[in-house]
Write a structure and sequence with these properties.
8 strands; globular; two-stranded antiparallel sheet; six-stranded mixed beta sheet; 436 residues; 15 helices
Length: 436
């Protein structure tokens, strides 16, 4: 039977009268994160341990039955990939820093042990950098910058805080440095001459916004679905876009406190601020975030896709492949919004969106792109689809655009209320090929 109090702080849980779906286990994101961290403290990844695991996994390889061979090879591949990342980190930190302080082979051992330490936090540090910047590409670069800075500063790590907290502090400062250099702020889309954008207000334009693959979120086996919810906290695109409106310090304070669940004292130490300053930054950040959330959203808790929404996604993909504009239009809310970062194109309203799409989907149009195929995926905890086009006179479907969908959670029919379309260079990060 589900408990009616939070197992971390003991406070009563919010009533769920009239609500369906999985109930809350914790009273807040901070308590959820605290319990999550306590359950998944790393047990100490070592290079030798990885090598030993690979040896054991290789020893279990048998040609038959096929399902056993496949599962063992998959496990072995994951371990080899992890060891490759550790080795690459050890090599890169040495080459980039030129900071070897002990003779070989002791230096090599220290470098690989350092790489093993950082590897176990790689995914969550990358998610943290993504929350701060909104860019998958920049998050990848910032992880490498974080590990390089950590390598250079390893002599000052006294162990008073956990390695995880230490790395988060370094990563946060790396992100703040980037934000200071770029000094970018969301703007409003502007009309494109000759284009019908619809009657709605121009949405916010965040040119650097990119999607994040669900498969790269730091979720450990056996901890779904609760850990899945933790990993997706503040990763939904509409929430991530709202975070981009915050000044750098407010953004860092919000991410560390409300998304990551650090205490006010830990956040103050990481940002080299006073606790009062951290609390003040949060008080200013939260109303700004709510002002940029959709009208039906009062907070930034994740909204998991439903079976009904999955069915809508399948009909959406089928309509695209059939070039059926009427079927596609029937799945869209009347006030649907389409944006295409970093491109300047935007549309508000079903009629304007369909008019824009018609030019490329209608075989009678001079601008007809060709025939389409679609593959489902997940981005930012949301349903998404990778779309491929086979141009007239060709035989290959090439990656064209990734659509991340947001649904009407208040309406009765789960219509699509927002489509954010991205360029195809990130398809491989989502496990999607560039050609079909």
């Amino acid at each position: 039977m589900a408990t009616d109090v939070c197992p971390v702080c003991g406070k009563p849980l919010a009533a769920r009268a009239g609500r369906t779906g999985r109930g809350s286990v914790y009273c807040s994101a901070a308590c959820r994160q605290k319990a999550y961290r306590e359950r998944r403290q790393p047990e100490g990844l070592t290079v030798q341990g990885l090598i030993d695991d690979i040896g054991r996994q290789a020893g279990r390889l048998v040609p038959q039955p096929a399902d056993v061979l496949y599962s063992t090879v998959a496990e072995l591949s994951a371990s080899v990939a992890q060891l490759r990342r550790v080795a690459r980190t050890a090599r890169d930190t040495t080459e980039d820093s030129g900071d070897s302080v002990t003779p070989a082979p002791v230096t090599q051992l220290a470098e690989t042990d350092f790489a093993a330490l950082t590897e176990q936090y790689r995914r969550e540090i990358q998610v943290h950098c993504y929350r701060m910047t909104g860019s998958y590409d920049e998050a990848e670069d910032l992880v490498q910058e974080t590990f390089l800075r950590a390598w250079r500063a390893r002599g000052g790590f006294q162990g008073r805080a956990s390695a995880r907290t230490w790395l988060y502090r370094i990563a946060t400062n790396a992100c703040l440095d980037l934000l200071r250099r770029t000094a970018r702020r969301p703007q409003r889309y502007e009309p494109v001459p000759g284009m019908n954008h619809g009657a709605g207000e121009p949405p916010a334009r965040i040119t650097w916004l990119q999607p994040y693959p669900d498969d790269e979120l730091p979720v450990e086996e056996g901890e779904l679905p609760e850990a899945s919810a933790v990993s997706r906290e503040t990763l939904e695109l509409v929430l991530l876009a709202a975070i981009q409106h915050l000044p750098a310090r407010q953004r860092a304070a919000f991410v560390l406190r409300d998304a990551l669940g650090l205490t006010a004292a830990e956040t103050a130490e990481a940002l080299e601020m006073s606790v009062a300053s951290v609390n003040s930054a949060l008080q200013r950040a939260r109303p700004t975030l709510r002002a940029h959330l959709p009208r039906e959203r009062a907070d930034w808790r994740p909204v998991a896709p439903t079976r009904e929404q999955q069915a809508v996604l399948e009909r959406y993909m089928a309509a695209v492949e059939r070039l059926d504009l009427d079927a596609m239009a029937a799945l869209l809310a009347e006030d649907v919004v389409l944006t295409m970062p970093p491109n300047p194109f935007w549309f508000t309203g079903r009629d304007a969106l369909v008019d824009f799409v018609r030019v490329s989907l209608d075989p009678a149009s001079p601008a007809f792109l060709g025939h389409w195929r679609s593959l489902p995926t997940r981005a930012n905890g949301q349903l998404a689809v990778g779309n491929y086009v086979r141009r007239p006179g060709t035989s290959v479907y090439r990656a064209q655009v990734m659509d991340v969908l947001r649904f009407d959670t208040d309406g009765p029919d789960d219509r699509i209320v927002e489509i954010t379309s991205f360029e195809p260079h990130l398809f491989p990060a989502f496990g999607l090929p560039l050609r079909l």
